[in-house]
Design brief:
Layout: H1 4-18, H2 24-44, H3 49-56, H4 59-69, H5 88-99, H6 107-126, H7 132-158, H8 163-191
Helix pairs in contact: 1-2, 1-4, 2-3, 5-6, 5-8, 6-7, 7-8
């Protein structure tokens, strides 16, 4: 258990640390005034050191008040947390980016789909809705496996140009890609933090 002297020393050390931004002369005067105030209060109430220190105030508040009295404004900017995007938005973008290329034979849809998918990936990676492992699992199911399936389908069926086999396997691959994207998106939705 700390003695009265130790409590006072710790308190004054905390005030000195917090008032490091004060000019040396002002800090010395503040420390002398506080030490004297505490000694006078202890003479009146020898057994109430904790109560006295509580009445004197928080070391940070004392230092901030002393800075304000000198005309300095302490850095009291509140760091606002990054605005969170809703968890459903990147999931919706993943699903839309997977369906969009099949909306028509316009090449522009393919490029828009790629941009949307990249946006969704970045949103998931930067989000605080999921832990790192959950992000990896969700993006592997919703993005990496479907992309690998697209590439495999292209090299197995499009490049050889066997049109009968290509058309038969095309919709199977599309369905499998969409199912994987839905499973990955569902995983992300289910494991999101509030």
């Amino acid at each position: 258990m700390k003695t009265d002297d130790t409590l006072v020393e710790d308190y004054l050390a905390a005030v000195e640390r917090e008032s490091a931004a004060l000019p040396p002369a002002a800090r010395q005067e503040l420390m002398a005034d506080l030490g004297e105030h505490i000694q006078v209060a202890l003479a009146e109430r020898p057994s109430g050191i904790r109560e006295i220190l509580h009445e004197v105030g928080d070391p940070r508040t004392i230092a901030a008040t002393a800075l304000q009295e000198l005309g300095h404004t302490p850095d009291t900017r509140v760091h606002k947390p990054r605005r969170r995007s809703p968890a459903w938005l990147p999931i919706l973008l993943l699903l839309v980016s997977d369906v969009l290329p099949y909306a028509g034979d316009i090449v522009l849809w393919d490029w828009i789909s790629v941009i949307i998918k990249i946006t969704a990936i970045v949103m998931v990676c930067r989000s605080r809705h999921w832990r790192a492992a959950q992000k990896w699992i969700g993006l592997t199911l919703a993005v990496l496996l479907p992309v690998a399936l697209h590439v495999a389908w292209y090299f197995l069926f499009v490049v050889p140009d066997d049109s009968a086999a290509t058309e038969a396997w095309r919709w199977t691959a599309v369905a499998l890609v969409f199912v994987l994207t839905v499973i990955g998106s569902g995983w992300l939705w289910r494991t999101k933090r509030p």
